[in-house]
Amino acid sequence: MAPASTEISPAFWSTGDGTGEIAPGRLDETGGARDWVEMDTLFSGVSRGTEALVFNGQVPPSEYERMRAPFQQGDFPGPVRYGYMSVGRVTGGPEDLRGRAAFCLFPHQRRYRVPAAAVTPLPSGVTPERAVLAANMETAINGLWDATPRVGDRIAVVGCGVVGCLVAWLARRIPGTRVTAIDPNPAREAVLRELGVDWHAHGGSDDHDLVFHTSGHPSGLETALSLSGNEARIIEMSWYGETAVEAALGGSFHSRRLTLRSSQVGQISPAQAPRWSYRDRMALALSLLTDETLDALITGESDFDELPGVMAELAKGPSDTLCHRIRYQ
């Protein structure tokens, strides 16, 4: 492990009580190693659901270790430098990477150093502005891998945040599928129309082969169960922090032989793990971001210095915001 460095760069820190600040973040010491890179950040993205839980101090003690971000500084509940949607330009390191834009699972910080293996150069056709969606796309990919959708499946996605929208967008590209996105917020209709996905404010028929729950709200799980047909699979992609969730496992749950399964991006789906590395999965996520219609998922942008106030607003609760992008230059 690299020794701590005395060199610092401005970073965003969550205190764990609903406040945050811009304060020094440590740069890891490379010691002149050839397999490290230095990054000047161009953009980062706010992952509203998870970062709001961190910001408000709602990470359960049992998850303190499992919830650590790859380059987190500090410990839960805070102060903690947390985040994982950073796009920067390589300013130092191996010659073949210098000057290139790359994605890294790094918190909100102006400048940082990481092992070269931790960055993925952006493929042709993917702008740095859109590349902040890479971590969300990676989560959506893993959810589809866990779900094993089939040609012609009738698929519902309950909850249309960024991950839910991306799950629906990916599922729609499978031949013959009927994909319905469900979210009570009418502002989602225009976004989903851009993505080519049908939107409904409330649940519908219970004939679905596959249902994804991505709303982050316990009531959404009840909706997901109600949409499921006989032998259907429900993929639970929401994470509730310390919130207790009641699941309607009485009634017809057993007679319909439903399968309720969790999906979490921290591990590669077991079906893919023998052949796919984390680096492979991230490269796939970035390659899928060439479609400019995905820009519809970026619904706001702010300067880095404004992030404490922006995060406080985003962490208040439901809003029309999808991905909020932070600019550094």
What is the structure about, briefly put?
GO terms for molecular function: metal ion binding; oxidoreductase activity. This protein has 329 residues and is of the alpha/beta class. It has helices at 48-55, 128-131, 134-147, 162-172, 188-195, 218-226, 278-287, 307-314; strands at residues 8-14, 20-26, 36-46, 73-74, 80-81, 86-92, 101-104, 111-115, 119-121, 154-158, 178-182, 198-200, 208-213, 228-236, 259-262, 298-303, 323-327.
Walk me through what this model shows.
The chain is of the alpha/beta class. The protein has 2 domains: 181 residues, Alpha-Beta Complex (Quinone Oxidoreductase, Chain A, domain 1), CATH 3.90.180; 114 residues, NAD(P)-binding Rossmann-like Domain (Rossmann fold). Helix content is 22%, strand content 28%. The strands form 4 sheets. Strands 3, 6, 7, 8, 9, 16 and 17 form a 7-stranded mixed beta sheet that branches. Strand 4 and strand 5 form a beta hairpin. This is Threonine dehydrogenase. Its cofactor is Zn(2+). Belongs to the zinc-containing alcohol dehydrogenase family. GO terms for molecular function: metal ion binding; oxidoreductase activity.
In total, the number of strands is: 17
H/E order of the elements? EEEHEEEEEEHHEHEHEEHEEHEHE
* Sequence stretches where pLDDT stays below 50 over 5 or more residues: none
Give me the number of helical elements: 8
Strand share of the residues? 25-35%
CATH superfamily of the largest domain: Medium-chain alcohol dehydrogenases, catalytic domain
User: What is the CATH third-level topology name of the largest domain?
Assistant: Quinone Oxidoreductase, Chain A, domain 1
Write down the overall mean pLDDT: 93
Shape summary: globular
Class per helix and strand makeup: alpha/beta
Report on the biggest sheet.
7 strands, mixed
Judging by the overall fold, what is the CATH architecture of the largest domain? Alpha-Beta Complex
Any idea what the radius of gyration is?
Answer: 20 Å
